[in-house]
Amino acid sequence: MTFRSALVLFAHPDDAEFMCGGTVARWAREGTEVHYVCVTDGSAGSNEPGMTREALRPIREAEQRAAAELLGVRSVTFLGYLDGRLELTWDLRRDVTREVRRFRPDVLIAPDPSRLWSGNRYINHRDHRVVGEAALCAVMPDAPTRAQFPELLEEGFEPFEVPRLWLSSEEGDTFVDIGGTIDIKLRALGCHVSQGIGGPDVEEWVRKRAAELGARAGVEYGEAFRAFDLRSEA
Q1: What pTM value is reported for the model?
Q2: Does residue 162 contact residue 141 with C-beta atoms inside 8 Å?
Q3: Where in the chain are the domains?
Q4: Which fold has domain 5-233?
Q5: Given 176, 193, 224, 230, which is the most exposed site by the fewest CB atoms within 10 A?
C-alpha cells in the first residue's frame, strides 16, 4: 500500500524512528512525500549532570533532522512545546490542526493515546499519549470543521478531512513489511547520539520487537498500526 503523502506526528525527537522508521523509509523509497511534525523540543531527554534544556534543545533538533534526512523525509517541523509538560490545550490542538491542514496528508501517523503501558516493564510517556489525543482531535473535529480556529482560516488554512489515520500500536490490525528497511531504521535511530540508542542492546531489542510484529503478518520484520479508513464516512 502506497500513498501520495504522509504526515507523522510525534512527541519527541527519536519517537518517529521507533514508531515507524522502517515504514517511513519504505514509503519514501516508493515515492510517498513524508513529513514530520515533532511537537516538543526534546529538552528533557537527558539526566546528565550539568546538561540544561537550553543546551540540549539544538542537539536533539539536529539529531532529528539527520535521522529524517537518512530516511528520506521531505520536511521536519518543530512545534517547540516544552518536553515533559505537554497537555491537550486549545493552543496545542490549533497548532497540530494547522500542520494537518497545511500538509493535507493521505495518511496521518501518530502514537496510540490509549497505550498506558507495555507488559510490566514500560510505562508510556504522557507526552506520547497527549500527542495521540491531539491527533484524534485533529481528525475530529478540528481539521475538518470550519468553525474551529477561525484564525487558521485567516492564515489561509482551509478545513481538511483526514482520509486515513494510522496509530502506532502493538495491537495493530495493519502491518508494513520492513524487512528491506530495518537496517536504515536502525541507522536513523543511531543518529540520536544524545539518547544513547545506537548500541547493540537497542538494536537487539528493535529487531526482536520487529520480528514479533512481522511474525503476525508472515514477514521477517514488521511495524504495526491500528488503521482507520475514514473515507467510508463521506
Answers
A1: 0.97
A2: no
A3: 5-233
A4: Rossmann fold (3.40.50)
A5: 193
